[in-house]
Design a protein that fits this description.
Radius of gyration: 13 Å
Largest sheet: 7 strands, mixed
Distance between the termini: 40 Å
Number of strands: 11
Helix content: under 10%
Low-confidence stretches: none
Order of helices and strands: EEEEEEEEEEE
């Protein structure tokens, strides 16, 4: 059974940093498309960052230059390093996996293509 478990969310001041982790189990981690999404109160869930099979990455314009998605295949873990945090980054952050099918940059805007989701970890940024 596929399981994704996020951790690392916290409350921080604007300008601070956090690193989110997503521990994956139940499938061959390196074979699948992994991404981070977020959902702020009253808003739709949106894509933040995606890492593809070859290690290439893509980011939402709002986080480019501030967030970095990485993975450790040996640990079956996905990370999101978030720097220079802003109040508008406040949201529940979700890890997602697309198992089956190809992996490409525009999947960042197609959350419904992702089969599995974690329970989320909350990030709050105060000004």
């Amino acid at each position: 059974q596929v399981q994704l478990v996020e951790s690392g969310g916290d409350s921080v001041q604007a300008g601070g940093s956090l690193r989110l982790s997503c521990a994956a189990s139940g499938y061959t981690y390196s074979s699948y498309c992994m991404g981070w999404f977020r959902q702020a109160p009253g808003k739709e869930r949106e894509g933040v960052a995606l890492i593809m099979y070859d290690g290439s990455t893509t980011y939402a314009d709002s986080v480019k230059g501030r967030f970095t998605i990485t993975e450790d295949n040996a640990k079956n873990t996905l990370y999101l390093q978030m720097n220079s945090l802003k109040p508008e980054d406040t949201a529940m952050y979700y890890c997602a996996a697309r198992i089956g099918g190809s992996c490409y940059a525009s999947l960042l805007r197609k959350k419904y293509e992702f089969n599995y989701w974690g329970q989320g970890t909350r990030v709050t940024v105060s000004s």
